[in-house]
Amino acid sequence: MKDKKYNKGFVILTAAIVAFGGLLFGFDTGVISGALLLIKQDPALAINGMPELPERIQEWIVSITVLGAAIGAMSSGRISDKLGRKKIIIITAFIFAAGSIGLALANSVALLIIWRFIVGIAIGVASYTVPLYISEVSPSHARGALVSINQLAITVGIFASYLVDLGFAEVAEGWRWMFIVGLVPSLILGIGMFFLPETPRWLLTNNEEDNARKVVNKVGEPNPEKIIDDIKVSLKKEGKQLSTRKALSAKWVRPALIIGIGVMLFQQFVGINTIIYYSPTIFEMAGFGAESGSPVYDAILPSLPIGAINVIFTIVAIFLVDKWGRKPLLYLGLIGMVLALVALGIGFTFHESISSSTLRYIAFISMIIYIPFFAISLGPIAWLLISEVYPTKIRGVGMSIATMVNWLANFVVANTFLSLGKITTGQMPAPTGDDMITNPGGAFFIYAVIGILGLIFVYSYIPETKGHTLEEIEQHFQAGKHPKEL
Predict the structure, then answer these.
(1) What b-and-e string marks burial along 397-432, b requiring 16 or more CB atoms within 10 Å of the CB?
(2) Total structural domains in the chain?
(3) Is 119 within 8 Å of 64 (Cβ atoms)?
(4) DSSP string of 186-203?
(5) What is the pTM of this model?
(6) 322-340 tens-digit pLDDT
(7) Which structural domain, as residue segments, surrounds residue 74?
(8) pLDDT tens digits for range 374-415
């Protein structure tokens, strides 16, 4: 349609630069999957002369970043609303850079955990400020695709981390090189943000109407004055009805809180980050590399197609999210994930009844099926929804709360996966000998049940935000209407 023209080059370039925050999110969460295989066997990090770090220590090395992300998300929402989206992203970029250097130089488990925690804080801030920034500079008809660029960048970061892991898998202390690579995108993000504008909605919130108008004109909105007027009307209504302190208790804001918190809980409790953080470990449990002279390399190698498929289907989601809508993709994705999780659960639970090669096939194929269904649904759409449903005046705080919940749920999953598998399904013989290792079958069944509950939540509560401006969505909630009626 003619009225949908906009300055596509500027908007896409802006989204691409900001999305380096998403790339860092993906890289720093994914790189540990391969690094862990080397860290747990590094003599320089050994505890009490043990040949391998205990599973609980491994879980903490993985999950402490997630805990840091929860704290970063929780503590910086007000700062984002106070300082602006642009400044907070620049600060975050340089925290990422410091974390990459600190991790590469760490000479003890304690320092490793401390620097992983610091990187986690940066991830937590970036995980909501990046989609927030993009959503506030994007024209409404392209917002879904543009915000989803962030999710694409996350998947590219994860895939890049797998490539880096593979590249340094057989290098002495290769895990240090794995971490230092994160310095490059950190600097690109930090420097690139200096050349981008602040978002018009934040500028209007802070009485900078002339600057806001310049940004809206630069975006190339077909009716810039209407955009400015709509934002001003929303802010005026919020000024009468809300203060930042009281906003979260306002009755009409409550549905947005439920949507944001609910979609983030389901995004994590379907087990996505067991795949991202532990895929080489899962492949190792299934027997990959058991008969190889390079077991670490062979356990990381199957993760590459998972990372590649994640990227490909996130691109598919970018093209579909503004055509099919949010809810159809959520239905499709959740159904596919549940089926894949059930297959994984069956394969590991009944491993004694099948051959080792069959278990390897089941593990690999099930994870290959699981990833694309996540990538077209909960992956991008959860972040998109939380950038859409909150009112302008408290969008930073609202998104930080939803993001904090996401990271706390992520922490629970990352910190319990190995232990949960041991509790629910017991242990199984290690492919390389008589030792016993965790059997993750029961954990996958639990994630499948949560996926079914997620389908019910999507049907009963998630609104279809496709094609609506942020102000229209806000006005719908202000009118006291049920989210499903949008």
Answers:
(1) bbbbbbbbbbbbbbbbbbbbbbebbbebbeebeebe
(2) 1
(3) no
(4) HHHHHHHHTTSPPPHHHH
(5) 0.77
(6) 889 899 999 999 999 999 9
(7) 2-485
(8) 999 998 899 889 888 888 777 777 887 888 888 889 888 888
